[in-house]
Design goal:
The protein is of the alpha/beta class. Helices cover about 35% and strands about 15% of the residues. β2 (about 55-60), α5 and β3 form a beta-alpha-beta unit. The longest helix has 20 residues, at about 195-215. Mean pLDDT is about 95; it is low at about 260-265.
Length: about 270
């Protein structure tokens, strides 16, 4: 694969990085990334990946654009209200970069469809808004051997880390399973500062690009926590849990299942 002159010009600020170069840009153009959730986190993540020249982007979301989304879900605009989010987002990504192939899935992830969807992608971004979906994505990526970026936000806080199945700690290593229903406030109840979604979603895009390029140090076995009020980041280290029900020494989860617990919080919100 060789870059065309238009591509060299479009991606020139990226190509001049010694860690990227022409070969790295070719890698991005040949890469496939699935974003689960076209909301607060998926918006900036998808826009930066399209701009960077990731060749194929998949978007999965069963929701439609609502007026309350527009404060933070920047891939959508006022004229998109009532439109399926994946259609609205795909239109914006194609406008940013017409060369990017955008595949849309106007549905929610379930144990019955997720493995068939993620099988064709190199990396998965989790931008969902509830615990059942987050645990499902974690489990599906583990069984399929797909690396993914987890992130969540609430109020003025955000967090993210990267999972390399079989090599790093997974989401269940930290949290086990969903909390009791109504144990934590939802994003609709507690609120969220729009810019926090931009910060964390952009970091998810950055982690994705690093993985695809094979450069830098990924956020594996460590969680990056952002406090917007104090304007600081901190790292929390962790390791694989030998008692993890999914990737531990004696796993009890051996097949995909749908969890029933519709709650979201800063550990797992699309917003």
């Amino acid at each position: 694969m060789s870059l065309r002159m238009e591509e060299i010009e479009r991606y020139s600020r990226q190509i001049i990085l010694k860690e990227v170069g022409g070969k790295g840009q070719e890698k991005l153009l040949a890469s496939r990334v699935l974003i689960v959730g076209a909301g607060g986190l998926g918006s900036p993540a998808s826009m930066y990946l399209a701009a960077a020249g990731v060749g194929t982007i998949g978007l999965i979301d069963g929701d439609i654009v609502d007026l309350t989304n527009l404060q933070r879900q920047i891939v959508h605009s006022t004229g998109d209200i009532g439109t399926p989010k994946v259609r609205s987002a795909a239109e914006k990504l194609r406008a940013i970069n017409p060369a990017v192939q955008v595949h849309t899935y106007e549905e929610r992830v379930t144990a019955g469809n997720i493995l068939d969807i993620i099988k064709d992608y190199d990396f998965v971004i989790d931008g969902t808004d509830n615990f059942p979906a987050k645990f499902l994505i974690n489990d599906a990526c583990y069984f399929a051997g797909k690396p993914f970026s987890h992130a969540g936000i609430l109020r003025f806080d955000g967090q993210l880390f990267t999972v390399l199945p079989g090599r790093s700690a997974c989401y269940r290593c930290l949290f086990g399973g969903p909390p009791p229903a109504n144990a934590v406030p939802s994003c609709a109840q507690a609120g969220v500062l729009g810019g926090v979604a931009g910060v964390i979603g952009s970091l998810q895009a950055t982690e994705t690009l690093k993985y695809l390029l094979g450069v830098g140090e990924l956020l594996t076995d460590r969680m990056l926590v952002f406090d917007a009020l104090g304007m600081h980041f901190r790292e929390v280290g962790f390791r694989r849990n030998r008692r993890c029900p999914l990737c531990g020494e004696k796993p009890t989860i051996t097949e995909l299942r749908d969890e029933e617990q519709p709650v979201c919080d800063w550990r797992g919100t699309q917003v």
